[in-house]
Specification:
- The complex is a heterodimer of chains A (286) and B (352).
- Chain A is α/β, with parallel strands linked by helices.
- Chain A folds into two domains: 218 residues, 3-Layer(aba) Sandwich (Rossmann fold); 46 residues.
- In chain A, 33% of the residues lie in helices and 30% in strands.
- Chain A is built from ten helices and 13 strands.
- Chain A has a six-stranded mixed β-sheet with strand order 6-7-8-3-9-10, with helices on both faces.
- In chain A, helix 5 runs parallel beside helix 6.
- Chain A is globular and about 75 Å long.
- With 352 residues, chain B is of the alpha/beta class.
- In chain B, 66% of the residues lie in helices and 9% in strands.
- Chain B is built from 13 helices and five strands.
- Chain B has a five-stranded mixed β-sheet with strand order 2-1-3-4-5, with helices on both faces.
- Chain B starts with a helix and ends with a helix.
- The chains are: A alpha/beta (286), B alpha/beta (352).
- Chains A and B meet through helix 3 of A and helix 1 and helix 8 of B.
Chain lengths: 286, 352
């Protein structure tokens, strides 16, 4: 499978502050990569370099086989970007916002109503974007990023601060885009979302990628699997017993509890991506 | 960069400009107000002559002179005082007579007198001043006398037709209209940066050159359109039409260039207004030289708007031709190029 994005030793500094410090990765066509990291880790700077907003000070980024530093104008025809935080023309209606970008991308026979409906904004297309709620603005931003049917979709915190219904509708659109064959670069600090949507996840911390793999493999490599068993003690109070899985003693420990104690519930437990991030970097994602 | 993208951006900017109630009101009111003020100002020239005099004359002569129709005599202690008053626009001309004027006149000796004009003094007034000198001599001696007159024109010699006050202000109003539009463009660009919509534009096939081109065309077009409408309404396109239109266009380009600078300096509407007003004040200074002839010092020519105001004034009010004003146009074009390049460079740096 060809790579839609190849990043090689990307470097970018703001003054003496190194924001991105020699990161490298590849993303295959049709893949969703979750790019996880806390605020200030270098996520947005990486996206800015990949989308041509910033010129790398070191290394190179190749998108769809072309170096973004040398061929930015032609590459930008094939990418869609949804920024963190609303940046819409609020004096213009939702439809006008989308039509403007359709003209910039030279999209023929653009069906604005269909796109508005796809992100759940039916009936609000003729309202000014400034009158939209945060969730509606975010949905309009996602719609804007889809106008040119991009081959690569950059989504920067697309569900940040949204209500569950809005967040779910955006996740559904992301999956539809992946099914269509688009490559998705998903920047987020929501590990649940990344876990749910991403084929692979990358952890970035202090400008460096500290881990890059599938969620499953990362959990296997860094996490612990366990059983949480709730039992009633002699006084009738709930107690929790934890049995680590994948050890030679695990079967006997399970048998012993089942035989000697009054079991109320049994749950399996997996490490979350946040647990793994903390384990690798010593700090949380939030 | 293709025309489709430029067109889309221009259409968007025009729509946003019209939806910005503040600027829409300011621009419409500005155009209406400047036009109204022009139309309500007197279209006729005041026929009274304010006449300065440095002389020691027998009592009664001044009253005798003022009894004639439309003459007001202002006495000065020295020729320097008289010249200062003329250059300051208080009076349009005056006479300085030597201390022994009366003695020489009465003894039949030819005398010399100094006659000073403002550069804006019409030919009729100059004739009247010459006549006045003869009148004084005749009143004293009872007969015409041999008086040698040394004439000095203070400031630029723009002898010709009298200019009505409102026509004097016409170029000033046109410049104000153009500079007001500068703030509109600065606001559009500043808002684009502030709300980060510019980032959304920059990840489309549009590039930074296209952005500047579209903004420049929008700002120039809006300023030029309004200035032309104003000049058309007030009759400013009647003479040297091509020259006036080109000058307005160059002025509009200047407004766009300054708009880039103001947008880069401002972080929100208020700071755009603050910087914009500062530019407007500085750039208005040369215009006052038109209202008050002789008050302009050489340093004002360092202000780029001087070449805009002066060209408009000369072309509209005095019918000066391409040949007279081509150096002004070259200066104006040079300043424009500097503003555009500097403004684009600073905005580009601001975008990171």
């Amino acid at each position: 499978m060809e790579h839609a994005i190849i990043a090689e030793e990307l470097v970018y500094s703001y003054g003496k502050q190194k924001a991105v410090d020699g990161i490298s990765f590849q993303i295959s066509q049709g893949e969703i990569l979750g790019f996880l990291g806390p605020n200030g880790a270098g996520k947005s700077t990486t996206v800015n370099m990949l989308t041509g907003l910033l010129k790398p000070q070191g290394g190179r980024a190749v998108l769809l086989g072309r170096d973004i530093s040398k061929d930015v104008d032609s590459i930008q025809k094939y990418i869609g970007v949804c920024f963190e935080g609303a940046n819409l023309y609020e004096q213009m209606t939702g439809e006008e916002n989308l039509k403007l970008f359709a003209r910039l991308f030279d999209v023929k026979n653009f069906d604005v109503k269909a796109l508005i409906a796809r992100v759940g904004l039916e009936g609000r297309g003729k309202d000014r974007a400034g009158s939209y709620s945060k969730g509606m603005k975010q949905r309009l931003m996602v719609a804007r990023s889809l106008i040119n049917r991009p081959e690569i979709l950059f989504l920067d915190e697309p569900t940040d601060g949204l209500d569950p219904a809005s967040a779910e509708s955006i996740r559904r659109v992301i999956q539809e885009e992946r099914d269509r064959g688009a490559t998705v670069f998903l920047t987020t600090h929501d590990m649940m979302e990344a876990d749910k949507l991403s084929d692979r996840v990358a952890f970035i911390n202090q400008g460096k990628i500290v881990a890059l793999d599938t969620s499953h493999n990362l959990k296997q490599q860094y996490g612990k699997r366990a059983l949480n068993i709730e039992v009633l003690d002699a006084e009738g109070k709930l107690q929790t017993r934890e049995i680590i899985l994948d050890t030679p003693d695990t079967p006997s420990q399970v048998r012993e509890i089942m035989a000697s104690e009054k079991v109320v519930t049994i749950h399996s437990e997996e490490a979350t991506l946040e647990d793994i991030f903390i384990r690798i970097t010593g700090r949380g994602l939030s | 960069m293709n025309a489709r993208i430029i067109g889309a951006l221009i259409q968007k900017d025009l729509a946003l400009a019209m939806r910005n109630r503040f600027f829409a009101v300011v621009l419409v009111l500005g155009l209406v107000a400047y036009t109204a003020v022009y139309l309500f100002m007197p279209s006729q020239v005041d026929e009274d002559i304010d006449f300065g005099l440095v002389a020691q004359l027998p009592s009664g002569i001044i009253e005798q002179l003022e009894s004639g129709e439309g003459l007001r005599v202002h006495m000065f202690d020295s020729a320097d005082g008289l010249k200062t008053a003329i250059e300051g626009g208080e009076i349009m001309g005056g006479l300085s007579l030597p201390d022994d004027f009366i003695t020489d006149i009465t003894s039949g000796v030819p005398v010399s007198a100094s006659l000073y004009y403002s550069s804006a003094t019409p030919e009729e007034y100059r004739s009247a001043l010459n006549l006045m000198l003869s009148e004084i001599a005749y009143t004293i001696a009872g007969k015409p006398l041999n008086v040698v007159v040394n004439t000095t024109v203070l400031g630029r010699d723009t002898s010709g037709s009298p200019i009505a006050p409102r026509d004097t202000l016409m170029p000033l109003f046109a410049v104000f209209i153009i500079l007001t539009e500068m703030m509109s463009l600065a606001s559009l660009l500043s808002e684009e940066i502030e709300t980060r919509t510019i980032r959304a534009l920059m990840v489309t096939p549009m590039n930074i050159r296209g952005l500047f081109l579209a903004k420049g065309i929008t700002g120039t077009g809006m300023a030029f359109f309004q200035a032309v409408v104003f000049m058309a309404i007030v009759g400013g396109l009647g003479t040297q039409t091509g020259l006036v239109l080109l000058t307005l266009l160059l002025g509009a380009v200047m407004a766009a260039g300054i708009g880039f600078l103001v947008a880069a300096a401002g972080r929100d509407l208020m700071s755009v207004m603050a910087w914009g007003v500062l530019f407007m004040l500085v750039f208005s200074v040369p215009a006052f030289g038109v209202i008050f002839p002789g008050s302009i010092s050489g340093w004002v020519q360092a202000i780029p708007s001087f070449y805009l105001v002066d060209t408009l004034n000369q072309a509209v009010n005095y019918g000066s031709s391409w040949g007279d004003l081509w150096t002004n146009l070259v200066w104006l074009a040079g300043f424009n190029a500097a503003f555009i390049i500097l403004g684009m460079w600073i905005v580009r740096r601001k975008l990171g």
